[in-house]
Amino acid sequence: MKNLNFENKLYVITESDISKGRSNEFIVMKAIKGGAEIIQLREKQWDKHKVKKEAIKLNKICRENNAIFIVNDYIDIALEIGADGVHLGQSDMTAAEARKICGDSLIIGVSTHSVEQAIDADQEDVDYITIGPIYETRAKDFTVGVEIIKPVLDNVYKPIIAIGGINKDNIGEVLKQGIRSVAVISAVVSADDVMKAASELVKKIKKA
User: Fold this and answer.
1) I need a labelling partner for 118 at 20 to 30 A (CA). Which of 66, 130, 133, 182 fits?
2) Catalytic amino acids?
3) Would you give the DSSP letter of residue 35?
4) What are 129's strand-pairing partners?
5) How does pLDDT run across 75-128, given as a tens digit for each residue?
6) The pTM is what?
7) How far apart are CA 38 and CA 35, in angstroms?
């Protein structure tokens, strides 16, 4: 497993439905060129076979460009193709179950939506924890607000990544709370200039 420092990173998650007709390969390559260091394949509407085929392509791009590649949900695909990690939601298998399957061969990330969930995840054998959605998103019908970040950081020792509706206009407010890494979807995937959008976010993260 790659030894990953989660500080000061831009984490970009795919969503082909909002990529303006551009392939995930194009988006991922441009995002990495713009400074993104973690990529997650997340295509909730796709069948497993299609996800696996895409994962193989994106894993190759990430390996060639020294970026971390995470597969959403499918621990078996992540293991089979040699991805760096798997990301689990609250309704997926537990981190303990995942760790039994993959041992130390995968990074495991977990989504959380409250201080309590983040504290619980911190007790598990996970490598990083996402907290969100900070702001309104298309996918979620709730937000946790920027105010959640400080209590999470005060009570959780694992690396925390903020997610949900974060973009170049509000990332400053997020970083002010003490968070050091941010995950985005539409702010990069939907941008007219993907590389520039990623680069602008990375500059703000590094400056903070």
Assistant:
1) 66
2) 42, 111, 140
3) T
4) 110, 160
5) 999 999 999 999 999 999 999 999 999 999 999 999 999 999 999 999 999 999
6) 0.97
7) 9
